[in-house]
């Protein structure tokens, strides 16, 4: 059995090298997808269909970008351009929830990121994106005082380590690479962190609501799955602000969601909304999305919305299709600053 696995890994490696030399993106299938993606720091995968005109247009550009990034990078094996023929590999297309062509998915260490590549589809843009995405995910802390200057509006995970050569730091780095789009990662390493490491290496979570009371990770620092789960839960808030950059990403998750539209100057109502959601439906985080938006910024499509809270109350009471309508009614009663409440029907 070990021999079979060894032969498979070699064949995958040879195929990867051969396609890179020829300037072609690596073709993925059920036999090699896990090994190819898992061996890369960053993989940009083109999910395409041969009959699709836009897929046909992108194909030579994508292959050329893969060829050039291979030639430019000192260690090209860390970045992989790969492709999936969704007609032939329907199981892979279904696994990654592909519903349009072409779709460019991003993977880090074999883990698919929530965001897709939505930038310009040119050789130069793809190469620049790949370079930007492989910049260090961890900010080095030069002094503990510098931690007081980090952006308080962003979620941060801070590690205190004896050495970058430790297993603790390597596990931290893997998690940082995967969640770099959701959290800021900082590391104080060596002498600068001595006063914080009297009980050993440790990792903290900090947000605008936890200043002075960081949440400490209390499990095995070498347990990647445990640390990744802990960090994901804190880096992906239950209530997220919807923007033009993430709106398509949120809707493509296919989950029912409730959107609170509020005035840009009103900070009290969003705080109350977050608090109420946390109390009522924190256990449904994986199945529902609660988002915030500014009323003046968005066109509203496919959503039921009411300016009048009384009308919204009556509509919700009478419509059983609304997910968690009782919870939303409770929110209305405790959110006096609501200008517009929207919800998506089941």
Automatic annotation (TrEMBL):
Gene Ontology terms describing biological process: protein folding
Molecular function GO labels: protein disulfide isomerase activity
Highest rank taxon of the organism: Eukaryota
Matches recorded under Pfam families: Thioredoxin, Thioredoxin_6
InterPro entries xrefs: ERP44, Thioredoxin-like_sf, Thioredoxin_domain
UniProt keyword list: Signal
Residues in Thioredoxin domain copies: 5-135
Signal peptide: 1-23
Any one cellular-component term (Gene Ontology): endoplasmic reticulum-Golgi intermediate compartment
Protein name per the record: Endoplasmic reticulum resident protein 44
Source organism of the structure: Plakobranchus ocellatus
Lineage: Eukaryota, Metazoa, Spiralia, Lophotrochozoa, Mollusca
